[in-house]
Amino acid sequence: MKFTTHSIIFLSIFFGFCLDSLIATFQIKTYLSLLENTPYLMQTCFGFLVFCYWVYAIPERLRIFSALLYGLLIDLSFGDAVGFHMLFFGISSYVIHVYAFRFRLFSYIQLIIFFASASTFYLACEYLLFSPNNYSYFLLLSSFFINAIIWLPIYFCMRFVRRKLL
Amino acid sequence: MARTTPTYTPPGKYVLGCLFSIVLLISDLNYQTFSPLRGAAQASGIYSQLILESLFENITEFKALYREKKVLIKTNQKLNNELLQIENKAFLKKQAQLLLENMVYVQNGAQVLSKQRESKLFQIASFDFKNYFCCSRHTIYLKNPSKLKIRSNLPVSDGKTFIGQTAGMDLNLIKVILFSDTSHNLPIKIKEVYCNASGAGKPLLVSCFFPRGSQSLNLQINDTVFTSGMGGIFPKNILLGTVMNIADDSLDGIKITIRLKGNPLEKNYFGVLLD
Fold first, then answer.
1. B133, A79: Cβ pair inside 8 Å?
2. Do A86 and B17 touch (CB under 8 A)?
């Protein structure tokens, strides 16, 4: 795969994570002003879903090495523990690869359920590893619904980008 | 017969990749192996962000040249910054004085009369919002245009109270660890009760644990919380916040949650009390 293709894919994942950070900023302000005694309400996983989309859309071109490389770069860019995104990108990449062509037969609702579940699993592990104090089932449940809602816009938006640029 | 893996997906490489990631993750979580690398990468990211911001500011300023409000905007900004600086300076001066009078070193238990401490103001460079909201690590980075060597464990204030302490430097940016970071421990005093408050991993919250039946039973919600002066970093009797919640935690005894007064989201300038 060409370097420009890798750059486009990585940039889209990077912007996904930036969007997550931006949304977190608004959430902090809301949390501090209104909902201080409640658990966190929800967390979006734009970055992770964008990565899943790319593996889903071009599985033959995105393999383990790309997944590890993107994970490492995301870990370094966003100050997370090195290895966390590498591990999750690797695992999700494998699962999506194995079922890549079965996904083609899935309806939108089945895709939504699968990818929202995957992002919820990712979030649960993130909280368990880095912030067990803030782990809550309510957060996971609400994040499942939020990520289910954002999957389709990501899907169509990234498909548009893929058809235009790759 | 349907094939399970229509694409060629050799699991061996994936297993190796995942094992490699796990090794990296464990070494980083337990031994902070990649901490300097991560810090450098983050600092480079912040620098590029600052360069982009200044570029954007310059373009905005250029546009404002054609507007009559330009002078007013600049004056307003300047006055705002000056006000923040004066507020911070006054607070730090007072704290430096207090440190001279009250600082207690736990190591030898003796009163130490140090030299007059200097204070310096720094503008915020970056706030790690993602981790501040979700995770245990709460840090900010401060700009350091005069390239001062700032060591770790110096108190950082927002002009009204302390918000954290320095945690070294990454590519000339000063890293500050906030009180709400779970790895931070802060010796505090509530009425006559002393404890080490650790960060709760949530914005503006720290918590203390007391064994059941201890002095903590006399504490009430909205009691004021002060620095105890133990540890030798912060001067004593500085208002930190109020008791927000007292709960019986089945595992650890009585858990007291404290809401901090200093909100790092509200300020652009932070003062560091230098040696």
1. no
2. yes
Task: Flag whether B102 is in a domain.
Answer: no
| Residue B25 near residue A90, CB atoms below 8 Å | no
CATH number at residue B247: 2.40.10.350
For chain A, give every domain's residue range.
Answer: 3-165
Which of B25, B133, B137 is facing A84, going by the closest CB pair?
B25
Q: How many domains does chain B have?
A: 1
pLDDT in tens, A144-165: 999 999 999 999 999 999 998 8
| Closest in A28, A84, A91 to B132, CB measured | A28
Contact: A134, B134; criterion CB under 8 Å = yes
User: B148-179 pLDDT, tens per residue?
Assistant: 888 888 999 888 888 999 988 888 889 999 99
Contact status, residue A52 vs residue A156, Cβ threshold 8 Å: no
Buried b (16+ CB within 10 A) or exposed e, A51-89: bbbbbbbbbeebbbebbbebbbbbbbbbbbbbbbbbbbb
Q: Taking CB atoms and an 8 Å cutoff, what residues of chain B touch A28?
A: 129, 132-133, 203, 265
Nearest by Cα to A90 from A120, A122, A114? A122
pTM score: 0.71
CA-to-CA distance for B150 and B170, rounded, in angstroms? 11
